[in-house]
Amino acid sequence: MPPTQIPQTYRVKSFGCQMNVYDGERMAELLAEQGITAAPDGAEADLVVLNTCHIREKAAEKVYSDIGRLRRADGSSPLIAVAGCVAQAEGDEIMKRAPAVQMVVGPQAYHRLPEMIREATGGKRVTDTDMPAQTKFGALPARNRDGRRSAPAAFLTVQEGCDKFCTYCVVPYTRGAEVSRPHAELIDEAKRLVDAGAREISLLGQNVNAWTGEDARGRTIGLDGLIRELAEIPELARIRYTTSHPNDFTEGLIAAHGEVDKLMPFLHLPVQAGSDRVLKAMNRSHTAESYLKVLEKVRAARPDIALSGDFIVGFPGESDAEFEDTLALVDTVRYAQCFSFKYSPRPGTPAATMDGQVPAEVMTERIMRLQAALGRDQTAFNKASVGKTCQVLVERKGKLPGQWLGKSPWLQSVYFEDDVAVGDMVTVELTEGGYNAVSARLLSPVAA
Ligand code: 5AD
Ligand code: SF4
């Protein structure tokens, strides 16, 4: 029997990308507005929202094992909602395979959760995977309305969806077409986040640099215009954005990297592969050369920029020689950090049925070689930053007593020991660089 009482406590568990983390926060705020409170750490919640990711196989499988783990000794379960991209892509399948799930809600429909909860506690199993033209944002409660504090480094989704249709990717199907949130709504949300304590805002979008809007004077602006305007908020110290597509990279955004001090010297620009034939088969619509050209320009505008990317190894048909092109590109760029993945066939995507699926052992060998090269460059980048003085935004306590963790402007994790608090912006000298992090010593407690 499903629970019949309106839940009093909730837990939202987000998997996958930062956009899911953002959606998870907004769902939590929505539930709080309904009078449902966050379950204390370790306590069982009446309502569990699994905010899922569908980008690779393992992510989807995890959902089913998580649902299984929610089952109590007496066979009952809390009220379970599956949200996010697995919900969007496999909603019917979830309902069939997991009888304990009462609600399936897609990424564009979660503003309807309160209504769905009422129906679910009335005994119905409800699915909402609509993608309404009117975006959910207008229907959500304003950020931090209930006086809750923001994390010092906050996320703000400015754009959703993707029109690029890379042949391996589910995002255009699960998140829908590219939609930019209106300018005024974003400025308002950013100010609310800053009022609630955010010192850094990361602007999020599947294709964040495709964001476009009309400013207060009716002029059409791009992401660079939005960044310049946000930089005017006095208490906001840092701006970042992710994820970009090489083809939407404008001269204006490149210039902003050289001109806007608050825009951090970090760029995540996925390339996926180094071979032009593979890039074409992936429908990436850029070449290795045009990608490198963008990086060159950004480096010219902001010489200390730290570069990041995404890679897929073992795309169908990728030959040994084509994989070597990926390694060659890595050698050329010298990334500060990267994500790399084995190709995972996603149902419904064109690549899933392409000839030349690469055997698992070849994939493993390639990812190990790629990660060795990326690891080498990441460590070298961290070591090369030793001796630099920079600001660090303190985000949380470290694992060791007295230790704190924050981020450098180049998005390195920086550890140091001193008497500081979460949210402080401190000046440090970087003293030691490793693979994953950099150690530092505090120079001045609070930055000017
Ligand atoms: N298999 C492996 N990696 C994928 N990505 C997206 N789809 C797949 C897939 N089917 C990776 C890409 C993308 C990142 C978010 O996930 O590198 O940039
Ligand atoms: Fe997926 Fe390509 Fe769109 Fe990125 S640009 S979300 S990889 S389809």
Automatic annotation (TrEMBL):
<dbReference type="GO" id="GO:0035597">
    <property type="term" value="F:tRNA-2-methylthio-N(6)-dimethylallyladenosine(37) synthase activity"/>
</dbReference>
<comment type="subunit">
    <text>Monomer.</text>
</comment>
<feature type="binding site">
    <location>
        <position position="169"/>
    </location>
    <ligand>
        <name>[4Fe-4S] cluster 2</name>
    </ligand>
</feature>
<keyword id="KW-0819">tRNA processing</keyword>
<keyword id="KW-0949">S-adenosyl-L-methionine</keyword>
<feature type="binding site">
    <location>
        <position position="17"/>
    </location>
    <ligand>
        <name>[4Fe-4S] cluster 1</name>
    </ligand>
</feature>
<feature type="binding site">
    <location>
        <position position="166"/>
    </location>
    <ligand>
        <name>[4Fe-4S] cluster 2</name>
    </ligand>
</feature>
<dbReference type="InterPro" id="IPR020612">
    <property type="entry name" value="Methylthiotransferase_CS"/>
</dbReference>
<dbReference type="InterPro" id="IPR006463">
    <property type="entry name" value="MiaB_methiolase"/>
</dbReference>
<feature type="binding site">
    <location>
        <position position="53"/>
    </location>
    <ligand>
        <name>[4Fe-4S] cluster 1</name>
    </ligand>
</feature>
<dbReference type="InterPro" id="IPR007197">
    <property type="entry name" value="rSAM"/>
</dbReference>
<keyword id="KW-0479">Metal-binding</keyword>
<keyword id="KW-0004">4Fe-4S</keyword>
<keyword id="KW-0808">Transferase</keyword>
<feature type="binding site">
    <location>
        <position position="85"/>
    </location>
    <ligand>
        <name>[4Fe-4S] cluster 1</name>
    </ligand>
</feature>
<dbReference type="Pfam" id="PF01938">
    <property type="entry name" value="TRAM"/>
</dbReference>
<dbReference type="InterPro" id="IPR023404">
    <property type="entry name" value="rSAM_horseshoe"/>
</dbReference>
<dbReference type="InterPro" id="IPR013848">
    <property type="entry name" value="Methylthiotransferase_N"/>
</dbReference>
<keyword id="KW-0411">Iron-sulfur</keyword>
<dbReference type="InterPro" id="IPR005839">
    <property type="entry name" value="Methylthiotransferase"/>
</dbReference>
<comment type="similarity">
    <text>Belongs to the methylthiotransferase family. MiaB subfamily.</text>
</comment>
<keyword id="KW-0408">Iron</keyword>
<dbReference type="Pfam" id="PF04055">
    <property type="entry name" value="Radical_SAM"/>
</dbReference>
<dbReference type="Pfam" id="PF00919">
    <property type="entry name" value="UPF0004"/>
</dbReference>
<feature type="domain" description="TRAM">
    <location>
        <begin position="383"/>
        <end position="444"/>
    </location>
</feature>
<feature type="binding site">
    <location>
        <position position="162"/>
    </location>
    <ligand>
        <name>[4Fe-4S] cluster 2</name>
    </ligand>
</feature>
<feature type="domain" description="Radical SAM core">
    <location>
        <begin position="148"/>
        <end position="380"/>
    </location>
</feature>
<dbReference type="InterPro" id="IPR038135">
    <property type="entry name" value="Methylthiotransferase_N_sf"/>
</dbReference>
<dbReference type="InterPro" id="IPR002792">
    <property type="entry name" value="TRAM_dom"/>
</dbReference>
<feature type="domain" description="MTTase N-terminal">
    <location>
        <begin position="8"/>
        <end position="122"/>
    </location>
</feature>
<dbReference type="InterPro" id="IPR058240">
    <property type="entry name" value="rSAM_sf"/>
</dbReference>
<keyword id="KW-0963">Cytoplasm</keyword>
<protein>
    <recommendedName>
        <fullName>tRNA-2-methylthio-N(6)-dimethylallyladenosine synthase</fullName>
        <ecNumber>2.8.4.3</ecNumber>
    </recommendedName>
</protein>
<comment type="function">
    <text>Catalyzes the methylthiolation of N6-(dimethylallyl)adenosine (i(6)A), leading to the formation of 2-methylthio-N6-(dimethylallyl)adenosine (ms(2)i(6)A) at position 37 in tRNAs that read codons beginning with uridine.</text>
</comment>
<dbReference type="InterPro" id="IPR006638">
    <property type="entry name" value="Elp3/MiaA/NifB-like_rSAM"/>
</dbReference>
